[in-house]
Design a protein that fits this description.
The complex is a heterodimer of chains A (111) and B (114). With 111 residues, chain A is an all-beta fold. Chain A has no helices and eleven strands. In chain A, the strands form two sheets. In chain A, strands 2, 4, 5, 9, 10 and 11 form a six-stranded mixed beta sheet that branches. The radius of gyration of chain A is 13 Å and the shape is globular. Chain B contains no helices and eleven strands. Chain B has 114 residues and is mostly beta strands. Chain B is globular. In chain B, a hairpin with a 3-residue loop joins strand 4 (31-38) and strand 5. In chain B, strands 2, 4, 5, 6, 9, 10 and 11 form a seven-stranded mixed beta sheet that branches. The chains are: A mainly beta (111), B mainly beta (114).
Chain lengths: 111, 114
């Protein structure tokens, strides 16, 4: 079973600050996804990265896939209270139904 | 929003009783999944289905069974619930698998086994 470790586990910051969340594994993934989950709801897909070194931007969120396709990072610029939630990374080895989810990073952004 | 409905949203039951959770989709997606979410473990796959009557085990399938008699419905059954099965259960659907796989999740079922 592949393991995906996320760090930090918890992050509490003030509005306007920048932050980076990391997702690391010893396994190689064919693609990696990031989800955000709000309390009482299921995760919602934010982005999928498939090429080593790939960088994708979604407004104030920047996602990067490591060159070796073993790790990924999520950087948020000028965080807002609406960014609050649980961020999950998920790696796909390419075989059927083999998405492995990370342990999650819980982000709280306060005014 | 993807049309996924999970029922019930909350359930409290006693150890040893059978429990069935239902997932209903209106998207006509081929693939359906059941995950459980526990603190420190992220989401773990219990079972999945790749078509009507076609199912397979996931990472944590012991103590669970599933059935899919129609494209739109995927049932998860705990034959004899245990306290270790207290968790939040999520159903997910996807149109395809592999690199391009995109999962859409339901809102979850909070199950407490006393």
């Amino acid at each position: 079973t592949q393991l995906l470790e996320q760090s930090p586990q918890f992050l509490s910051i003030q509005e306007g600050e920048n932050l980076t969340v990391y997702c690391n594994s010893s396994s190689v993934f064919s693609s990696l996804q990031w989800y955000r989950q709000e309390p009482g709801e299921g995760p919602v897909l934010l982005v999928t990265v498939v090429t080593g070194g790939e960088v994708k931007k979604l407004k104030r969120l920047t996602f990067q896939f490591g060159d070796a396709r073993k790790d990924s990072s999520l950087h948020i610029t000028a965080a807002q209270p609406g960014d609050t939630g649980l961020y999950l990374c998920a790696g796909n080895t390419g075989t059927a139904s083999k998405l492995t989810f990370g342990t999650g990073t819980r982000l709280q952004v306060t005014l | 929003d993807a049309g996924i409905t999970q029922s019930p949203r909350h359930k409290v039951t006693e150890t040893g009783t059978p429990v069935t959770l239902r997932c209903h989709q209106t998207e006509n997606h081929r693939y359906m999944y059941w995950y459980r979410q526990d603190p420190g473990h992220g989401l773990r796959l219990i079972h999945y289905s790749y078509g009507v009557k076609d199912t397979d085990k996931g990472e944590v399938s012991d103590g669970y069974s599933v059935s899919r008699s129609k494209t739109e419905d995927f049932l998860l059954t705990l034959e004899s619930a245990t306290s270790s099965q207290t968790s939040v259960y999520f159903c997910a659907i996807s149109e395809s698998q592999g690199k391009a796989e995109k999962l859409f999740f339901g809102s979850g079922t909070q199950l407490s086994v006393l």
